[in-house]
Automatic annotation (TrEMBL):
One of its GO terms (molecular function) is GTP binding. GTP binds at G26, L27, D28, N29, A30, G31, K32, T33, G73, N129, K130, Q131, D132. The keyword GTP-binding applies. Mg(2+) binds at T33, T51. The lineage of its organism: Eukaryota, Cryptophyceae, Pyrenomonadales, Geminigeraceae, Guillardia. Residues 315-325 have a biased composition (Polar residues). One of its GO terms (cellular component) is chloroplast. Residues 197-335 are annotated as: Disordered. This is Uncharacterized protein. Residues 197-245, 261-278, 287-298 have a biased composition (Basic and acidic residues).
Length: 367
């Protein structure tokens, strides 16, 4: 009987247990990791280092099994926050209440978070941390700075806290009280929140699968494009080499043809240059052959340039037979006047190669 009662109790307890996922957000140096120790009802360590990336942890509190997501608040890492939104039931946002110079940045980051897919409709707990420092503002003032008073569509709560207690002091009880508010808000709408988380996670997996598939497809297309470009490049290089080879062959052929043409032109030039000489020689020989009969007919050949021309004989009516009469002779041409200017006088002129004229006798004289 006791065993049956014990099993029934465990079954009821198990039915009452709830698994909750909560994400802790905020700017860097806001005190998120230190606050997480207080949420676990633990004193923070002396050397808490800034969170780089993602730091998960788990806490069992009563009937709740809480999965914490402590995410880094550096500016270059905030874009990763949205990848955790679909699987959370609630949000904790930590603000350094003693850093007024960062209030505007904290407000812009919170607004972007509340409007991101997966967050609207989920409860949000905001901590005004570092209440022990001078110049800090209260939770109500922080609500005004963050514009939360005007958000009627968001279930939220702003609480004061000191995440790092003074030495020797216990964990700030205001942290546990604020956490209870968040768990109660989740409990009120736990069923719908759990269904939404399940649906959002499935949607996220589907989108992630599509993203990876698209990424894989893009990678394959990029690889195919690179292969095509490489093939086209190799084809162009091959075509260029073939063209270069054909051009070289054409150049070599042109050189050979030019050499042959040059040799032919040389032979033609030699023939052309030789033929005029042959013609000139043939012409000179012909002239010489034509000149020979004239020389033979004269008996003496052509007179040199320094000799007087031969006497010309004109026909006369007084000439009978073969007898040469005096009347048939022409008088010698007078001496050129240019000799007057010469130092040689007319009387001193001696005609070379002059044969004395035969002495002619009259018909009455004795032969």
């Amino acid at each position: 009987m006791f065993t049956l009662a014990g099993n029934f109790y465990n079954w009821v307890k198990k039915k009452q247990e709830k698994s909750v996922t909560i994400i802790v957000l905020g700017l860097d140096n806001a005190g998120k990791t230190t606050l997480l120790y207080g949420l676990k009802d633990e004193l923070p360590q002396a050397d808490v280092t800034p969170t780089i990336g993602f730091r998960p942890s788990k806490l069992i509190s009563g009937k709740y099994t809480i999965q914490w997501f402590d995410v880094g608040g550096a500016k270059n890492f905030r874009r990763v926050w949205q990848s955790y939104y679909p699987e959370v039931h609630g949000v904790i946002y930590v603000v350094d209440a003693a850093a007024p110079e960062r209030f505007e940045e904290a407000k812009e980051t919170l607004d972007k978070t509340l409007e991101s897919e997966g967050i609207p409709g989920k409860p949000v707990l905001i901590f005004a941390n570092k209440q022990d420092l001078d110049g800090c503002i209260s939770a109500h003032e922080l609500s005004q700075k963050l514009g939360m008073l005007d958000r009627k569509d968001c279930c939220h709560h702003v609480a004061n806290c000191q995440a790092k207690p003074n030495e020797g002091d216990p964990v700030d009880p205001r942290i546990g009280k604020a956490l209870k508010w968040l768990l109660d808000a989740i409990e009120k709408d736990y069923k719908s929140l759990s269904e939404r988380v399940k649906k959002d996670m499935e949607e996220q997996k589907r989108k992630e699968k599509e993203r990876k598939e698209a990424q894989r497809k893009r990678a394959e297309e990029a690889k195919a494009a690179r292969l095509r470009e490489q093939a086209e490049k190799e084809a162009k290089e091959k075509e260029g080499k073939e063209k270069g080879a054909s051009i070289e062959m054409a150049v070599d052929s042109g050189k050979n043809t030019s050499s042959e043409d040059a040799s032919k032109e040389t032979e033609v030039d030699a023939v052309v240059k030789t033929e005029p000489i042959v013609e000139i020689r043939q012409s000179a020989a012909l002239e010489q052959r034509e000149e020979e009969p004239r020389r033979r007919s004269d008996g003496f050949g052509s007179p040199p340039s320094n000799r007087l021309p031969a006497l010309e004989v004109e026909p006369s009516t007084t000439r009978t037979g073969n007898t040469l009469r005096l009347t048939d002779l022409k008088p010698m041409p007078p001496v050129v006047d240019t000799l007057q200017d010469s130092p040689v006088r007319k009387a001193d002129v001696t005609l070379p190669n002059v044969v004395p004229s035969p002495q002619l006798y009259s018909h009455e004289g004795t032969h």
